[in-house]
Amino acid sequence: MASEGMPFPPSWREAPMGGAAYKPSTLLRTGTWRLGLKPVVDEEKCTGCGWCHIYCPDGAANLVDGKAKINYEYCKGCGICAEQCPAGAISMVKE
Amino acid sequence: MAVLEQKVVGMTGDEAVAYAIKQVEPDIVAAYPITPQTIIVERFSEYVADGLVKTEFVAVESEHSALSACVGAAATGARAFTATAAQGLALMWEILYIASSLRLPIVMAIVNRALSAPINIHADHSDTMGARDSGWIQLYCENSQEAYDTCIQAWRIAEHPEVRLPVMVCLDGFVLSHTLEDIRTLPDDAVKRFIGKPPEVRVKVEVPVEGGTEIVDAPYKLDPWAPVPLTMGTFAMYDCYFEYKRQQEEGMKAALRVIEEVGREYGELSGRYYGLVHPYRLEDADVAIVGVGSSMGTASVAVDELREEGYRVGLLRIRCFRPFPVDRVREALKNVKAVAVMDRAMSFGGPGGPLFMDMVAAFYGGAHRPLMANFIYGLGGRDISVADFKQVVKTVYGDLEAGAVREPMRYVGLRG
User: Which residue of A has its CA nearest to B214?
Assistant: First the structure.
């Protein structure tokens, strides 16, 4: 079975070099890995510095319209963004 | 095409590598110093500091980071170079496989050095022979001129659209890296013309469109602003991992052809021709010495002296160890009766050294099966002399007379 979002090569000859894909698998929504805590952004405090985006190991913290926005589909709830946010705008809350 | 006029410069092997890379002027060099490779990085960082190259020099905290930085850069389409030796290569291990599997045309000079322990900084091939299965092309140089020449050719090989594999340019520690040699150097513009721009490689990926998906052709590089931005090295399970590995093997097969083509073209430019294997006085030989690296120069002197003594002996230097040029090796040795396979590395517990195992495998399937004797030599930089090589050949003649290899693995220059 080919995974959704990953082109399954019908033959090894047609496999896209280096396992390249237009988008990563949508099957592996790593957001389901969170163990009860999620980061929540206080938009009032957020200065839009992008520090959370740089630190997020999963590319799940992004800037949207100048404010941090967490993609909960992929956020594993590690809490690094909350730890690193210089403005104290991200806190880990119970889901 | 007429051979270009070349400037002769006195350089060590390390300096020759740094000079070639200066002329190539890659986009980035990320490296960490380790003896006996250090001078490559030192010289190159001087070129950067003096403004002689536009290359970005990334001073990293380890070899693991050095190759990781090269992987990142090469994935965006940048030309990336690094250099290391022994322990440094060992620390890169994880990333070696990633570089080759992502089909990134990185060039890395390896100054061959023994692996610890006990700690040793001198030449043997334990480091790169251990990396033979990592998917990198491996070219072993006999002298520093060849190291210079190969550091230029390597880009054309690595970046060839049918190859797209990283290349290790291997030169023996100290014997080459720290020894002064007259190096004939090409003019800067000739090097630039020879390597050209990296050819664009495209991949077909599935892109969602209204009502389904379609297959789109996109340049194979990381570019978040591209119309079709790509992810590389995606999660691939049992349903497609195998296919990618099989595809990688095609790059190696193509490399056999491309290395010869590039070596020929480089020869037209420089007068120095390079192939996969370099035969010497093999035409009517009964016995052949086979090996890689700088000691093959010593072996060629032994061949000359033995010839004068009436021995019909020749030499086959393997320049390209990965991919292993089975056809060329068979062709070159089609008339010999016995082979002395010289290994400057061990495969502990194996049936022989790494080169020996490949040599035996190359001939086992064919009709012509010369006797194969394995000689381990030069570990940790132990010298091998002309007299040693002559003794090796005479031992193999003894095997021929006995009709069998009397000892499966012998050690040259070992006490006791």
Answer: A7
Does the distance separating the beta carbons of B208 and A22 come in below 8 Å?
A: yes
Average pLDDT over residues B335-354: 98
Is the same domain home to B136 and B111? yes
Contact present, B373 and B338 (Cβ < 8 Å): yes
Q: Which residue of A has its CA nearest to B101?
A: A18
Q: What residue numbers bound the domain in which B344 lies?
A: 277-411
pLDDT digits (tens, 9 = 90+) for B380-393: 999 999 999 999 99
Cα B356 to the chain's mean position, in Å? 17
Crossing angle for the helix pair B188-195 and B144-159, to the nearest 10 degrees: 30
Chain B residues within an 8 Å CB radius of A2: 239-240
Q: Which of the residues A8, A22, A74 would you substitute to probe the B interface, choosing the one with the greatest number of B C-beta atoms within 10 Å?
A: A22
- pLDDT, averaged in runs of 10, over chain A (95 residues): 52 88 71 95 97 94 96 95 98 97
d(CA B175, CA B76) in angstroms, rounded, equals 36
Residue B2 lies in a domain: no
Residues B293 and B360 in one domain: yes
| CA A69/CA B149 separation, integer angstroms | 52
Is pLDDT of B94 > 80? yes
Q: pTM for the whole thing?
A: 0.91
B128 shares a domain with B20: yes
Q: How far apart are CA B170 and CA B150, in angstroms?
A: 9
Identify whether residues B146 and B282 lie together within a single domain. Answer: no
Residue A1 resides in a domain: no
Whether A1 has its CB under 8 Å from any CB of chain B: the answer is yes
Residues of A in contact with B242 (CB under 8 A): 12
Q: Which of B244, B270, B296 is the last residue of a domain?
A: B270
From chain A, pick out residues whose CB is under 8 angstroms from the CB of B227. Answer: none
Per-residue model confidence as pLDDT tens digits over B306-315: 999 999 999 9
Cα–Cα–Cα angle for B191, B194, B195, rounded to 5 degrees: 90
Give contacts of A25 with chain B, Cβ < 8 Å. 234-235
Counting the structural domains of chain B, the total is 3
CB contact under 8 A, A12 and B206: no
Q: Which residue in B164, B215, B220, B234 has the most chain A C-beta atoms within 10 A of its own C-beta, making it the best mutation to test that interface?
A: B234
CA angle B216, B236, A12 (to 5 degrees): 60
Residues of B in contact with A7 (CB under 8 A): 205-206, 215
